[in-house]
Amino acid sequence: MRFSTQWNAGNRQGIDENTPKEIQVIEVLDKTAIGKLTAVWGIDYFQLEKNDGVWQIRHVIWQSHPPSDG
Predict the structure, then answer these.
(1) What percent of the chain has pLDDT over 70?
(2) Which residues, in sequence order, are bridge partners of residue 24?
């Protein structure tokens, strides 16, 4: 298992701020929200909460891309 703090140590993957990413806003309510990030390294799902008017990430779950069926 790779830990997120070690995954791209030393930028071995060639990932930087210009690496393509897609963000999907799944749902936004008054105090909670769900988002999805799809990128070259995998898929991240975010749970956010609003505290004192500020959005904060509460939970993240992520995995590498599943194997293709091809």
Answers:
(1) 77
(2) 36
